[in-house]
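Try this one yourself first.
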């Protein structure tokens, strides 16, 4: 429809200037001289509009008839059959019969991906659109969504088809990784459009025009009820809760959760990211370097000061520590003594090195994220999507504070 609209505008512009030229011929010579610029500029503008319209129409024709939206999706399944579970099918692109759909391709680490997924799920519910999740495995995340969690009603794929969506007239694409900018500058997603929406992001999905916070909170609560850990993650959660009880005779709901995100060396934080080519959007970007600098304000020593103040108000409290750093865990253990708790699973010890982004380590991280969300009070790290997701899914109300400087 867009190219038809442009063609109609072109025809109108052409006839408008044709009529203008006809009127100019009827004027006296002096008036014609004065309007010489108008006579030369009119045909040029009309011709330029026609050329732009033809180019746009040819592109639209190619998208709609030479590159079929439906073939685009079936091609994806045929190309990656090993990633499609038995019984899965990629949805047809028949917008008129089934309504438009939302495809969210999440990126970067666990916190970034869950934050993007949850906010996209809220938008899908608000707009009554079907949501599909694309969860690629890469240096940031070497675990599939099925290794970690289950979300009722959402079909999951492991390979991007962004390039395919960009060529198809069935999609409107929002790619927030090509030019990562501050959240306030990101273009919001217009879910009122009739075409399918493809979003590639490591950030929150902001819906254009959304302002009803109460309804968003209600929808998010329903989505969280549908988000369930896989059996291996449940087992890890059980083991960590048992260890907590054996050491302190206290349940997870009676401790204070603490998340310390202080690793500011990106090569150590994301092993292998330095080897990615400059053209790869998952490489180290100025935006990531900026965030890493802010993490220096979240050094463990700042957390110790905050926790000591907290201990003066409530003696005997136990602090469940989750961190991305050996240094943070060992330092805070020495400072807190008997008030300290951190999971000491042998298989988790390797997660502070080159294996930090492997499936087993991500499963441990998922278990700790879910446990932190169940604590009575939460001391969080700023500039951390992991902490942000804990606060999103936890029932903290106002029982949270930053541990950073």
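Now uncover the answer:
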């Amino acid at each position: 429809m867009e190219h038809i609209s442009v063609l109609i505008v072109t025809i109108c512009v052409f006839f408008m200037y044709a009529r203008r030229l006809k009127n100019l011929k009827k004027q006296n010579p002096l008036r014609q001289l004065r309007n010489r610029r108008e006579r030369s500029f009119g045909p040029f503008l009309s011709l330029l509009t026609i050329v732009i319209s033809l180019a746009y129409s040819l592109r639209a024709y190619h998208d709609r008839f030479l590159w079929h939206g439906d073939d685009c999706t079936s091609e994806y399944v045929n190309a990656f059959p090993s990633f499609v579970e038995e019984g899965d099918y990629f949805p047809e692109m028949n917008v008129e019969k089934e309504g438009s759909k939302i495809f969210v391709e999440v990126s970067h680490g666990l916190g970034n991906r869950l934050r993007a997924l949850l906010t996209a799920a809220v938008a899908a519910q608000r707009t009554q659109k079907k949501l599909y999740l694309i969860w690629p495995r890469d240096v940031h995340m070497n675990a599939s969504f099925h290794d970690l969690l289950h979300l009722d009603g959402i079909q999951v794929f492991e390979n991007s088809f962004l390039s395919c969506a960009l060529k198809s007239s069935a999609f409107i694409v929002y790619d927030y990784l090509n030019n990562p900018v501050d959240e306030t500058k990101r273009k919001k997603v217009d879910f009122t459009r009739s075409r399918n929406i493809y979003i590639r992001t490591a950030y929150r999905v902001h819906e254009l025009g959304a302002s009803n916070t109460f309804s968003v909170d209600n929808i998010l609560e329903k989505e969280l009820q549908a988000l369930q850990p896989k059996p291996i993650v449940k087992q890890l959660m059980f083991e960590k809760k048992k260890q907590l009880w054996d050491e302190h005779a206290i349940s997870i709901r009676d401790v204070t959760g603490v998340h310390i995100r202080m690793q500011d060396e990106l090569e150590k934080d994301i092993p292998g990211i330095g080897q990615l080519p400059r053209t790869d959007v998952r490489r180290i970007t100025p935006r990531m370097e900026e965030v890493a600098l802010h993490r220096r304000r979240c050094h463990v020593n700042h957390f110790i000061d905050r926790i000591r103040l907290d201990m003066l108000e409530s003696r005997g409290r136990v602090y469940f520590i989750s961190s991305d750093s050996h240094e943070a865990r060992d330092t805070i253990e020495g400072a807190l003594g008997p008030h300290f708790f951190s999971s000491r699973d042998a298989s988790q010890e390797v997660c502070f090195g080159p294996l930090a982004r492997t499936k087993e380590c991500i499963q441990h991280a998922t278990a700790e994220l879910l446990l932190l969300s169940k604590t009575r009070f939460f001391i969080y790290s700023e500039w951390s999507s992991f902490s942000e997701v804990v606060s999103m899914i936890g029932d903290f109300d106002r029982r949270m504070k930053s541990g950073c400087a």
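Discussion: Confidence is low (pLDDT under 50) at residues 60-72, 75-97. The two ends are 54 Å apart (CA to CA).
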